[in-house]
Design a protein that fits this description.
By secondary structure, the chain is of the alpha/beta class. The protein has twelve helices and eleven strands. The strands form two sheets. Strands 1, 2, 3, 6, 7, 8, 9, 10 and 11 form a nine-stranded mixed sheet that branches. A two-stranded antiparallel sheet has the order 4-5. A hairpin with a 4-residue loop joins β8 and β9. α10 packs across α12. The two termini are 33 Å apart.
Length: 402
């Protein structure tokens, strides 16, 4: 907790690509030097406004589309249905690519900044036959207003309602286009009137969704995810303090940047070091938000359930937890993603899984001003560290053959 408190108080919030994020990585690198044989900081280019930039863009597109749809129905102008449908599909494209699959579709159009990854290596004393990477992320997010003011009871209806509205509108547009050809009278029907007014009503939901994040308030991110960073470093410090070395297993602590804007740090790490670390069997374990003891979980599905993490690594974590006397379930990240997803999708051959301890509702501190160094739970951090250490010792002994 000491290091987390120091970063939160002296460096403060760390939005991706900021000077504060870089200062945090430099501090983390100094911590790594006390327990690693080699420490490095990589830099990479990011476009911080892109990842959540789809929200205002999609709101604009679907709002204009809803108005055009209404005008098309009111004045019986079929061409407006085609325009509104195109706008809705464009909105869906950005939602699906940026949010669901974390693609960099908006990045080229927005300002760039420099972000960083810091990692420390404890080398094997003999021939390196396997490698394990424990990873947290050092950046923190903009505040999610709905989570702070109402938790899941407010967040889920607004976000869910917006998605429902966009899907509903797209379906209505398709119906209008089809019916304009096969039954033009339908355009002037009572049913069409109802569809038009429902879509206009959804505009209120879209405009509320514009308040999703507060770009002026960056949170401390003590739990999400300095806990993951310093748990990763803590593993190496434990080895150092107890004079433990492995003959054939290399251990790496990695603290990525720009995780909160689409896992950009983990992606860059894979691009730069995928081949280098593909020389032997390599395991990647993302540690994220080690705060809620009753919600410790191994995530075998990631990126809103669209990515499968490695089954062998998940089993390794499961067995490590059992040795530490914890029964940790498998879960799926149903909203968002971890750095493990970027590695699992990278094609590098590195096998990845995620471990977290966070109420997925989500917890009210998640991405809000409540995620402070005063809101840590040492019991959860210690339990997570125990599980990771047992997983490490098991991996050194048996590899993935558990």
């Amino acid at each position: 907790g000491r290091a987390i408190k120091k970063i939160c108080k002296e460096i403060g919030p760390r939005i991706a690509g900021s000077d504060a994020e870089y200062k945090a990585h430099k501090y983390i690198a100094e911590e790594m030097k006390t327990c690693c044989d080699e420490v490095k900081i990589d830099s990479f280019t990011v476009h911080p406004k892109a990842f959540l930039g789809w929200i205002p863009l999609s709101v604009f597109l679907v709002t204009v589309a809803s108005v055009l749809f209404f005008l098309g129905q009111f004045f019986a102008i079929t061409a407006l249905f085609f325009v509104s449908a195109a706008l809705a599909v464009t909105s869906l494209f950005f939602i699906i690519t940026e949010f669901l699959f974390y693609k960099e579709t908006l990045d080229p159009f927005l300002p760039k900044k420099t972000s960083h990854n810091a990692y420390g290596i404890k080398k094997a004393t003999g021939e390196t036959k396997r490698r394990i990477i424990f990873c947290g992320h050092a950046d923190s997010s903009m505040e999610w207003r709905f989570t702070y003011y109402g938790g899941p009871k407010l967040l889920i209806p607004v976000i869910g309602g917006s998605f429902v509205g966009v899907i509903f509108f797209t379906i209505c547009s398709i119906i209008a286009i089809v019916m304009s050809f096969i039954n033009p009278a339908f355009i002037d029907s009572f049913a069409m009137d109802i569809l038009s007014y429902i879509n206009l009503g959804f505009i209120v939901v879209y405009l509320v969704a514009l308040l999703f994040y507060d770009k002026r308030r960056i949170v401390e991110g003590a739990n999400d995810n300095l806990t993951g960073c310093f748990a990763s470093i803590g593993i190496l410090k434990f080895l150092q303090d107890n004079n433990i070395s492995f003959e054939n297993t290399e251990v790496i602590a990695l603290c990525t940047g720009s995780e909160e804007i689409g896992l950009r740090g983990a992606k860059d790490f894979c691009e730069k070091h995928g081949k280098e670390f593909g020389d032997v069997e390599t395991v990647f374990i993302a540690l994220d938000t080690l705060r809620d003891y009753d919600f410790m979980a191994i995530y075998n599905k990631d990126m809103t359930g669209t990515v499968k993490n490695d089954a062998e690594v998940c089993k390794l974590l499961k067995e490590g937890a059992k040795i530490a006397d914890y029964d940790v379930p498998y879960e799926s990240i149903f909203f968002g993603a971890s750095d493990a997803a970027a590695v699992s999708k990278s094609g590098t051959g590195i096998k990845a899984a995620a471990f977290a301890a966070m109420d997925p509702a989500p917890a009210r501190y998640y991405h809000t001003r409540l995620d402070t160094h005063e809101n840590l739970d040492l019991k959860t951090i210690e339990a997570s560290l125990d599980i990771c250490l047992e997983t490490l010792f098991l991996y050194d002994e048996k590899g993935l053959n558990v």
